[in-house]
Design a protein that fits this description.
Layout lengths: L5 H19 L5 H7 L3 H9 L3 H10 L1 H8 L1 H28 L1 H20 L7 H18 L10 H15 L6 H8 L2 H10 L2 H28 L1 H19 L3 E9 L2 E9 L11 H24 L1
Helix pairs in contact: 1-2, 1-6, 3-12, 4-5, 6-7, 7-13, 7-14, 8-13, 9-10, 9-12, 11-12, 12-13
């Protein structure tokens, strides 16, 4: 476990808040934020520390030794940030999605676009295998973004499964956990539960998320250990393919009403010129540039440290 000071854990909590904010938006992955903030592999490794050997250490050596093996301070600070962000920003981001979607998507588009270069340059050597995996990853993510959403579902077993699948997507850069929830038809149910403090639904989804996280993190750790370049190529492809979902300007082709919520069933990406009288173009471009630049600013700060 790394030796850290209190200010380091404050920074980790802030990174967690950024991850939580990204995961609330259907189209942006918290895993992307984790990667560009330099904590991705530590997060995967720390999650993998939760196994039977941890309980053996707890029994033989006590709580302190088990907490150190878990990298508990890191996980506590990070998930505290995610939890704070989801509770505090869910309503605000929902409002932005409803009222200023172009501006919100523009910022995230710039952020995610820069992430392609950031993650891609971590690949030490490009081979035919990494190129093929990159293309497959991009095609798979693009295909997922083209799937139509399901009708809203509030069955508890289904919500448990939704939490498990969404958290797998959450820790994958490029594929949004929130977007998976939209596809599964669970997004509105879970978002409303957070707003209304529906403990039963929140706990059910959280348990599903824990199950999915512990299972999927082991696969990711194995991939990073044995096939790092190929894994990074796959993740870079995922991020590239996900850009289709977060392109700011869309023309709605079909909508459907689920209760009091209208959901877009089908839309297509269009150029800004297709929006008559669109006076947000300049501001949208500025926000996209800010999002794009933010990645490299963070990288420069990190490299100085």
């Amino acid at each position: 476990m790394k030796v850290r000071q209190a200010k380091d854990y404050v920074l980790i909590t802030l990174k967690g808040m950024a991850m939580g904010a990204a995961d609330v938006v259907p189209g942006v992955s918290g895993g992307t934020i984790a990667f560009i903030s330099g904590i991705y592999e530590e997060l995967i490794t720390s999650i993998n520390n939760i196994d039977l050997s941890l309980f053996k250490v707890l029994k033989k050596e006590g709580i302190k030794a088990a907490w150190a093996k878990l990298n508990g301070n890191f996980l506590l600070a990070l998930f505290l940030g995610i939890f704070i962000s989801v509770l505090s920003l869910a309503k605000f981001l929902s409002w932005l999605l409803e009222n200023q979607p172009i501006l919100l998507w523009s910022f995230f588009f710039g952020l995610v676009l820069a992430s392609i270069f950031f993650v891609g340059k971590e690949i030490k050597k490009w081979t035919l295998a990494t190129l093929v995996v990159f293309i497959v990853g991009a095609a798979a993510a693009y295909f997922v973004t083209e799937l139509p959403p399901n009708e809203n579902v509030d069955s508890m077993p289904y919500l448990f499964l939704s939490g498990a699948l969404a958290v797998c997507a959450m820790i994958l850069p490029g594929i949004s956990g929130a977007f998976i929830l939209v596809l599964l038809g669970s997004y509105k149910t879970i978002l409303d539960a957070v707003h209304e403090r529906d403990v039963k639904i929140v706990i059910t989804v959280a348990l599903g998320a824990v199950f999915g996280l512990l299972s999927f993190a082991r696969l990711l750790k194995w991939m990073f250990k044995n096939y790092k370049n190929i894994t990074l190529a796959l993740l870079t492809g995922f991020i590239l393919g996900s850009l289709n979902k977060i392109w700011p300007w869309k023309k709605v082709l079909e909508t459907k009403t689920f209760g009091d919520k209208t959901v877009v069933i089908d839309d297509i990406n269009v150029w800004p010129s297709a929006f008559e009288g669109d006076n947000q173009l300049i501001l949208a471009v500025i926000l996209a540039v800010i999002g794009f630049s933010l990645i490299f600013i963070l990288e420069k700060i990190a490299s100085k440290k």
